[in-house]
Sequence to fold (296 residues):
Amino acid sequence: MSLPLEREEIQLLTEELEVTIAAHLAWFKQINRILVCANQVNKADLSDDAHLRTHFGQWYYSQEPNTLRENLDFQALGPTQQAMHDVTRLALLEVLDKRRPETELYDQCIDLALRLNTMLRRIQLDIIGELLTTDSLTGCASRRGMLTRLREEQERSLRIQRPCSICLLDFDHFKRVNDERGHPAGDAVLRQSLRFITGVLRKYDSIYRYGGEEFLICLPGSPMKDAWQVIERIRSGLESLPIRLPTGETMYVTASFGLAEMHPRRPVEEAIADADMALIQAKENGRNRIELWTQH
Fold:
């Protein structure tokens, strides 16, 4: 699951899911008690729109924007929850008629409620995984899991017979920013620059904080020529991007880029080394430029 969110937003989404899961389990406990102990039935659970009245229903069907709406696992929650309420309604009607629900009907209620809980937990764990693999400063992916993702793109490249390019970028004279203006200024440079860069990248591209002020960009389905055009938009846009510092001052930064193609039958690490060599060339040739790695 890839979420276009800041780290704080991911944390809030995780907490929101925890509240929803707890409310669902509380509802499930109440229903189970009614079915087993013949307690008083809540009329709201008998209504045709019972699935909308629970905490889950209010959260899931809210008109407010929800980042999860495009997620297939999230979309599968609705039908499961509605099926759960349909079966529960039938079981509760049995209780109202002073009859014990049939075993099969009871099992369906339990199975659907547990399935919904499992689905919610899976989404929550995916989001927590996103949190663990997200760089806290820039919001882009961290180095953790990067090689796995790159190998997946390498396999896909071989499957669709389309090249995949990677690029290493390094901010020019970044140490000078930290030394002369302080680390808060350096953080502002990285945060605002990465917000701009991720806005330029295509939806299927990915970017990782490789280390310090160095970042790795993966450009699937892109030969070097196409990848260069994307990176050039980043390079030219970055040099004219006003960075607002905590002091209220504005400064401008540039970056150097090393671009290489990821060959489908060579280790991913070799492609990263190629991009690194091209990056070194970019720095040696004056910085604020893109160098393409070519096999010598």
